[in-house]
Amino acid sequence: MRAIREIFLVVIGLVTGLSTPLWGQINISGKSGLMYIPSADVQEEGTFTVGYAYSPSRYAIKYNRTNSESIYFISLVVLSRLEINVNLLRPNGMAPRSSVGFAAEGIGDRQIDLKYVFMTEKTRWPSVALILSAPFGIDNSLITNALVATKHVKLSKIIDAGFTVGMGSPYSLYRSGVKNEENSDIFTGYTLKDKRDKPYYYLAGPFGGVNLSVANKAGLMFEWDSQHVNIGLYARLVRHWTLQAGLVNGDQLTFGTSYSLNLLQLPKRLSAKHSPAK
Amino acid sequence: MRKRIRTSVLNEPLVQGLFLLVGLLVWSTGESRSQSVNKLLNFENLTVDTARHQIYYEQRLYRNPLIGLLELAEEVVPQGITTFVPLFQGVPIAGYQLGSGLRTTTLSGNDRQRFNREHPFDGRAYKFDFRLQPEFIAQFGFREQIVESKTNLLLQSQLYISRGLILNWGVLFPIINRLDNQALNVRPAPTFLNQFLALNGTNFMSLSAGLFYNDQYGVNVQYRHADLTKRWSYGMESGLTGFYFFPPNGFYYETMKNVLLLADVAYRIPGRDVTLKLSGGQYLYQDRGVRFDFIRQLGSVEVGFYVSKTGNGGSGGFNFAIPIAPGRIFQTRRLRLRTTEEFRWEYAYSRGYNMATRYKVSYQLDALLRQYHTSYLQNQYR
């Protein structure tokens, strides 16, 4: 019993003694997270990330069972608690034609999302974040309206377990009646929609997962994305470049890659002499 | 046959420009062969006031003024310099003291008059500085042509005429045009005069006249009250412009009939390098309305998010300003070729017709002055 208590204290000490952690793992829409689910983590303030993710056709979000999808994203940690993320979703290959006669793809679905961490991680409490997609989308499918909590536990000197649980709202605001060519006012046409009305949808209902990271260099992920169980791996190759791959529902492969850099760093020749630790 | 004539017209200015560049290059390397490679070459119009331990300097290489300041500090702090006064177009901005932190002193009208007396303006203190500036104008979302864009590469330069007064000029090389029906002819880049004025420590003006960006020519006046040590600032901008463009053989313009009249008030959150700005008035084509900006400065980069609501519609989106790598390509005491220190771009979510549109001059006063705000420099230095 005493031994358990001691281990617990050591774990607590390690967790609280951590300097600013860098959670470099990015989810399908470009947010700190696992594979399909977001977490309440945000990277260091000023971190800019650019990346790509592939969603296989049976789990493609908009073009489900007709096309696999490519998702391109950028994100920026604008404030230490605020991450803003812009993503673009496109079908791979020829998309089905729409009734108006043009290929249905267009430029793709553009979406702007915000993640705000309103409670940072404490010794006993997880960090809690609210994620909202900007409501002025016309026909977005990666909409993430969710409340999520994440807690990191140091399992050994180098292994960190990040537990995430969250709830995705099936409801979202769209501007459904608006045509692309008539899109002249983002403040009109709002309609409340239920994602579950579509045959396939993203992140509605409870979700969760765990990210086991080894020395912040590589890791193993397990998640419930509100519909399936997914398993994945990731590795950071050079300092800022992450590669990841996963198996969705034990069926099809997903993969992605991202590159991060911190915009707040001064050029090396100057920062060595003028670093905050001077 | 017709095509051949056109090609030769296309190439002529390009060839001439190249000859001019090579000529300047040969001339300047010849002159500077004896000079050692020196970090001070990054700076222009350097003057030292040993009695006051001050150095006045201008640097046009870095978007982030702190990089220039620290680079210069490495060279001159050992010589007893404590106060750094960056100049913009030959006009002092403010005084910065480096110590355990960074301190800012605004310059009074008297300080400025004394500086002007003691340091008469000399255009020869500046290099022939050539800047490669990309230009990307785009609209998205139209199904027949999903990205309608116009991409150009500008070779720009600035001619220093008197204190605060410069002539912006250059050559524009078109690369792609899928936006409008303008031909791909090599043409003059936006060419205009700009006078920067510091009335005292906290009141600044920028006056421009000539051919601006976004096909508008005319006059533009900006005024701003901004204490570089305080949170609040406000400003006004007005302009009278008309449409112009350079067809392959000549110059086309319409009368000046677009009145721009804008006012803004901005609040800075010093600890976060965030500026919240509310602006409104009349934009181009008599479109009236308001716009709200959230602006974050991050080192050499600036990122903003905005929403606007005007008579022509509502929009929102993001913008950014970044330096383009590699920066300095080649430089001597007299001549420099470099990539731009600032590429600015804005994305609007909705595509409408003339919503809160404006044209661009070389710099906006508010954007320029927030780069010199004490908290922005201090947050990076501490």
Short summary of the structure?
Chain A is mainly beta.
Describe what this molecule looks like in 3D.
Chain A has 2 helices and 14 strands. Chain A has 278 residues and is mainly beta. Chain A has a single domain (2-95, 104-273), classed as monomeric porin ompg (Porin), CATH 2.40.160.40. Chain A has a 12-stranded antiparallel beta barrel with strand order 1-2-3-4-5-6-7-10-11-12-13-14. Residues 9-20 of chain A have low confidence and may be disordered. Chain B has 2 domains: 37-124, no CATH class; 129-381, no CATH class. Helix content of chain B is 18%, strand content 48%. Chain B is built from 5 helices and 23 strands. Chain B has helices spanning 2-32, 65-76, 109-118, 365-370, 374-381; strands at residues 44-49, 54-58, 83-88, 91-92, 95-98, 102-105, 128-142, 145-162, 165-177, 187-188, 192-198, 203-211, 216-226, 232-245, 252-253, 258-269, 274-282, 288-298, 301-310, 313-322, 328-331, 335-339, 343-348. In chain B, the strands form 2 sheets. Chain B has a 17-stranded mixed sheet that branches. In chain B, strands 1, 2, 3, 4, 5 and 6 form a 6-stranded mixed sheet that branches. In chain B, strand 8 and strand 9 (165-177) form a beta hairpin. The longest helix of chain B has 31 residues, at 2-32. The relative contact order of chain B is 0.14. Chains A and B meet through strand 2 and helix 2 of A and helix 2, strand 7, strand 19 and strand 20 of B.
